[in-house]
Amino acid sequence: MSPLEAAYAVLRQNPLWRQMFELNPAIQLIIDPVSRVVIDANPAACRFYRYRREEFKSLLFDHIEVNALPEGDLGSESMTFSFQHRIRGGELRDVKVNASAYDFDGETLTHMILVDITKRRRAEAAEQDQRALSAALATTTAALNSSLDLHEVLDRILEQVQHLIPCDFINIMLIENDYAAVVRSRGYEQTVNIEEYLGVKLNIHSTPTLRWMIENNRSLLIADIATDPRWRQLHTTEDWLKSYLGIPIRMGSHVIGFLNLDGSAPMAAVDYDERVLQAFADQAGVAIRNARLYERVQRQAMLMEQRVAERTAELEYERRQLRAILDSMTEGVIYSEPDSNGLLQPRYLNRAMARLLGQEHQEDLYSLIARIDALAIEGSDQPSVRSVISAALDQQPVVSMQLSLVGPDGARVEASLTTTRVDSLSGELLGAVTVVRDISREIALERQRSRFVAQASHELRTPLANMKTRLYLLRRQPERIDTHLPVLEKATSHMWRLVENLLDISRLERGAVRLDLEQLEVQEVVAFVVEAHRPAVEIKGQRLHVDLPDEPLVLIADGDRLIQVLNNLVANASAYTPAGGIITVRALRVPEMDAGESPPAGVRIDVIDTGIGIPPDRREEIFQPFYRIADDNDGSGLGLSITREIIHLHGGTIQVGGMPEGGSCFTLWLPLRQDAAGGADAPR
Hints:
The protein is an alpha+beta fold. It is built from 19 helices and 24 strands.
């Protein structure tokens, strides 16, 4: 027995030591700090290390101490440290050691009290691992969720997996219609044909590895593919492939794909953390789901955008079509909506309405609205057209009215307005469409027709009354037949001419007159008319002059109608020229530059008199039927109307003006070449 063992034997005889060492549940060891031999172990230490007490006495402390203390440390007076100790069987346990050195008769013993902290250390390690895992997953999640593009998400999944577990070959398979296809890969460029590899599709029910991961809902490690029956050899696989690790990509409890790590060397379970990889794969599943949802939303958005664009194009086409229809209308159209006060506010006016208001374009809506509001309604106390329509629409859905509108400049327009309500399903007024028609010309024509009928009746009444009187006198005075018969004949002739003229006007206006065209010289026609009128003119004490060029003026025209025109003009000139006055008939060629928009060249015929003249404001009216400058003229008032229609039928024009010295000048213009006009026969 060594001196140290002898000293310890004395110590063991102390009852207090026995109670403190033998009966204490704490793990305790007695160590020789020099030889590092275990001198003694209490029962608690034997149970912990799984050695018998006798076996301990042959053990070195270094046998159970994994991280051996340096030489001399066991002799320190007092120290506390944590190390891993190896118990029988090789299992490592974490312990906290409180060591104290005691001196017995010059010999030093080291007394160790140990506490098993394995569970605490493992809990701390697990907590630390969990924090590290959470941090890694947070980083991974941030990386995966930084993009919603599916291809970019797949690339980032591969990148993040390589951060978690070093690997040379990795791919992602996604499931579609019971088939898993490789959609992304890394590292295979030098080992397989990438295009062929990416085209591989595996049936998830007939491929053992994929079916196993789906059925077990966990990762699969095949350390050596040569010995595992679950491995299915692919035609693209080369000799380099030795091991396989597959992790299901899950979305909830549903497997949507796989992370596949192919190894060129055998792989052991300690080479990876299944928990970490599965958590990552689940995060990848969420990212893929989000990317797919985003793609679906993008497709839906693109489809919706396309449909909206198509519908917008359709609406734009319909809008342009509707606008073209509205702008081609001769009637004015106003679309209005009620404002906050219930007054209709125009939102659209077509081109005809803009022109009716004195503007060529309808883009300046506010200016047009101001022009509408500036219109006064003759005979109404309403402040504006809009207020009249708004008030009327409150009573009935469709309003038709005829208004005399007076502009700020005093111009009057006779307008027919028809307004229709546009109601919602609940009957609320949404807007109104007003169609405005300028009926000023219609009213003027109606007035002219009424005046024409009245004048025609008056013109017919006079000879009829004369005839009735003469017939009455003939019955009472048959012996005076020679007196009354000439009067009857004259009245009958007058009525005949009047009716013929009326029929002539009607036929000319309807285009029912067919011109008997022929080639003729203007000089001959003028000479014929002048000579026919010369006796009557000279009897009145008037002079008749003719001014004709030497060059023949050849026309293609209806000779009889042209004579009729000149007869009317010369007869009118004589009727309104006093004795001593001069009537001049002049003809000349009009060169192309003076013909304006007419045919290249023409003939101008002027009939000039020195009579009473025509006031400028009445020069347009003289071509109306039954119009006379002086009421004492016994003409029918139809000659100039007939004259104008005949000239227009020849494609010419007629104008009237005044002369500086007094009198009037009627100017005819006829084209030199007239192949056909007004449905007339071709020239002979």
